């Protein structure tokens, strides 16, 4: 008995859809892209998405090392790492913060970010040509509009250990936690957020002024919180998780 070979599906429409989604999620691997497409109602299998990725040469490549922005040589008080092995159970339990460097018109520029671990929401950001405590404090002040953390976790850099920065936290009864010097992975959540912002927004832009960078990064923060799904969040967005937690709290009360 003769069997007919199954007709192979035309993947061109799926390829166009994937490329469209890669505009807003340029670092999404094929597994995450599959979840994005399913949320949009697209009819596809994970193997088909992977095949398109292979055809279009979109499979992941190792990212280059990031530029170092932490200066741990200072006389400020250092705090122990209280986040290691801590079970994260609610929003505002732990906020993490970090700073990255990039260039605008050849000039060194610094971006400070603050994130809530539980929801993965980007809560605050600040830009400056100077990497100092005013920069990190500005990002923190923005984040504080949305709440107050129980624990604030960062590296041991002088911009986070300075008296100006730590006094702000201590006056709010926030417990301070810091990664061990030289162990960047102990601030892994913030490191991953930096990487996402760098490769999904910053390296794809050509800012002419720092104000233009602020405007575009602010727009990306909204996109990140409202549209970017996370595997660790059950393929939900940060704001979906935050809203679900708010409703759950309201129902309990």
Oligomer kind: single chain
Give the neighbour order of strands across the main sheet.
3-2-1-4-5
Relative helix content: 40-55%
- Total number of helices: 9
Low-confidence stretches: 1-6
What structural class should be given to the helix and strand makeup? alpha/beta
Radius of gyration: 21 Å
What's the overall average pLDDT, rounded? Answer: 87
Q: Beta-strand percentage?
A: 5-15%
Distance between the termini: 68 Å
Basic shape: globular
Name the helix and strand elements from N-terminus to C-terminus, one letter apiece: HHHEEEHEHHEHHH
Main pleated-sheet profile: 5 strands, mixed
Count of DSSP strands: 5
Question: Would you kindly provide a written description of the structure presented here, covering whatever features stand out?
Answer:
By secondary structure, the protein is of the alpha/beta class. The chain has a five-stranded mixed beta sheet with strand order 3-2-1-4-5, sandwiched between helices. The termini are far apart. The chain has helices at 12-24, 30-39, 46-55, 133-143, 158-161, 163-171, 188-202, 210-227, 238-252; strands at residues 94-104, 107-116, 122-128, 151-154, 175-178. α2 crosses α3 (46-55).
